[in-house]
Specification:
This protein is α+β, with helices and mostly antiparallel strands. It is built from 15 helices and 22 strands. It has an 8-stranded mixed β-sheet, sandwiched between helices. β1 and β2 form a beta hairpin. α4 crosses α6 and α9 crosses α11. The protein starts with about 25 loop residues before the first strand and ends in a 10-residue tail after the last helix. About 30% of the residues are buried.
Length: about 600
């Protein structure tokens, strides 16, 4: 293979145009495509920046042309040549450099390449495992590489915005103590402290609160976090947060900062002009109207509660559920009255996966409501349903009947499935929404005690404090989530800064003084030393990038992601280790699960 010698790159493969005509330039990159047109060889040369066509003409420069015969896909080249205009009918308007080409007078082959396991010049149908096994090749594909470029721009935009707004970028420890109040921790055995373990942080929550006690009143960090949990398309065992914490602020201040940061990101990366303030909705309203706490508001089809409308109706299934304290809700699938019986059977099977025992439906016709259940409703009930649902001829009404929680889940998932089938989920539309006033606690039936919905350091709404000990499930928190197109991209809360209030909440959660000292003693002691009012939030950078780029999985916006089984096909991690290493860590090499 040739060496670079004194050859130095003068331009990237996206920076040349007609202004550079007749200039001698040096380009370096990979062979994307090779075409032999009756002696003249054309190569599409690709680097990180783009693509430029280079030309080997045997009549003008026979030596590099002879050498070019051996070039194949993904070989690494350096070329020196003159910029020429392409003939008018040969220009490529799809390329930034499509009006020019480089007539090569010197070729150096810097490295050869084996035939790639999948084509890199097209969006080929390749399994995720193969893509991840050869991730360094996958990242050469323009659409995947562009995601990392955009990720860089987002991170730079975040840093610039927050620094301009008085934030300090401060790192927090990667090796900390386990605080088992969320997902499973990733544990790291200590060699020098036998039988003891560090935990990788699920978030920097406790440390950023300590920074507020320390007087660092505006902190941020773009930080790696770790959770040992079951994975989905939008989850990874290690993920990245944009983490913020501020002192002497209210919810309004934090929301304004978050909106300003998001506005800057969308303007600089997608040239989209967002117009804060974003809409707001309480948790209760979101659950009532959409059945979940991160509603996709790009389309309607909201859930409508028909419980009181149908109480005492002639349809025994609905009436029995209502009498037992359940609910009847419905959605109006506008214009779907032409769905076939197979379509309805498919939707019934879909909601069955979420625990539904069936799905009642009504097709709204010009002169009748068509369904096996219509005969059980009187004219007043039909009129009331028509008004509540805004039903018109051509619509399809779909019902859910059960306890409130399963009905909300089933109709929420059904609504989103219909949105997908009907093409209502436009990836070029970005609907932001703040969801506020979450419940402070929920009852954990398995452990028979209350558990924090957010985390144990979230402050309750002051107007609900009188209910804390008597009706804790009615207490709302000062927590807030930022939702984008049905995905939570950020969340946070105002924190508890009073030691007395923190003790009240821990007591409600069944965490006694001894347990509290063991888990959070260092934070509780810090609150005794003049902790300021403070709050913050964290953005899921990977999830935000997935939505910004229109990707279907966060794996497409992470340089080296894991699979859904938390493995890395590229490095074959996790892997076995030598017995000696286990012995040094005071672990039993012969340990097996019982």
């Amino acid at each position: 293979m040739d060496s670079l010698g004194a050859l130095r790159r003068t331009h990237d493969c996206n920076s040349l145009g007609l202004d550079n005509l007749n200039q001698e330039v040096v380009l370096m990159g990979w062979v994307l495509r090779r075409r032999d047109h009756g002696g003249v060889i054309f190569i599409d040369l690709r680097d990180r920046w783009g693509i430029t066509q280079i030309v080997f003409n045997p009549e003008i420069n026979p030596e590099p042309h002879a050498k070019a015969h051996q070039l194949r896909s993904e070989w690494v080249l350096a070329v020196r040549g003159k910029v020429e205009a392409r003939p008018g009918d040969m220009a490529n308007p799809k390329l930034k450099t499509g009006a020019i080409e480089i007539l090569v007078n010197e070729l150096r082959i810097l490295n050869a390449s084996r035939t790639p396991p999948f084509p890199l010049d097209e969006d080929s149908d390749v399994s995720d495992n193969i893509r991840l096994q050869y991730r360094y090749l996958d990242l050469r594909r323009p659409e995947i590489g562009a995601n990392l470029v955009m990720r860089h721009k987002v991170m730079q935009g975040v840093r610039n915005f927050l620094c301009d707004n008085g934030f300090l970028e401060i790192e927090t420890p990667m090796l900390t103590r386990s605080t088992p109040e969320g997902a499973r921790d990733y544990l790291v055995p200590s060699r020098v402290n036998a039988g003891k373990f560090f935990a990788l942080p699920q978030s920097p929550q406790l440390f950023k609160q300590l920074l507020m006690v320390a007087g660092m009143d505006r902190y941020f960090q773009i930080v790696k976090c770790f959770r040992d949990e079951d994975l989905r398309a939008d989850r990874q065992p290690e993920f990245t947060q944009i983490d913020l914490e501020l002192s002497f602020i209210s919810e309004e201040d934090i929301m304004a900062i978050a909106e300003g940061m998001v506005k800057k990101i969308f303007k600089e990366t997608r040239s989209i002009e967002l117009t804060p303030p974003f809409p707001r909705m309480t948790y209760q309203e979101a659950m009532s109207r959409y059945g979940n706490d991160k509603p996709d508001t790009r389309f309607g089809m909201e859930l409508v509660d028909l419980t009181e409308t149908l109480r005492g109706c002639g349809f025994k299934v609905f009436n029995a559920i209502i009498e037992e304290g359940g609910v009847v809700k419905a959605i109006n699938a506008k214009g779907c009255g032409n769905f076939s019986r197979k379509d309805l059977d498919d939707l019934t099977a879909f909601v069955a996966a979420f625990g539904a025992k069936g799905m009642a439906w009504i097709k709204v016709k010009e002169d009748e409501w068509q369904s096996p259940i219509t005969k059980f409703f009187n004219e007043n009930e039909i009129a009331a349903m028509r008004d509540a649902l805004g039903a018109e001829p051509g619509d399809l009404i779909l019902f859910g009947a059960d306890k409130l929680a399963p009905v909300n889940q089933q109709l929420s998932e059904l609504r989103l499935e219909l949105g997908r089938r009907l093409g209502l989920l436009d990836s070029n539309v970005f609907n932001f929404l703040w969801v506020t006033d979450f419940p402070l606690v929920e009852f954990d039936a398995e452990r028979k005690r209350y558990a924090a919905v957010h985390h144990p350091f979230t402050a309750p709404l002051e107007q609900d404090l009188d209910l804390l000990e008597t009706e804790p499930l009615k207490v709302r928190s000062r927590a807030y989530d930022l939702v984008l197109n049905g995905s939570e991209i950020g969340g946070g809360s105002i924190r508890i800064h009073s030691p007395q209030m923190q003790a009240r909440l821990l007591n409600l959660l069944g965490i006694g003084a001894e347990e509290a000292e063991e888990k959070f003693g260092f934070l509780l002691r810090a609150l005794d030393f003049g902790a300021p009012p403070h709050g913050g939030m964290a953005f899921g950078l990977d999830r935000l990038m997935m939505l910004l780029t229109g990707s279907s999985s966060i794996r497409d916006v992470i340089a080296f992601p894991k699979t859904q089984k938390a493995t890395c096909p590229l490095t074959d991690a996790p892997s076995s280790v030598e017995r000696k290493q286990l012995t040094e860590l005071h672990l039993r090499p012969d340990w097996k699960e019982a």
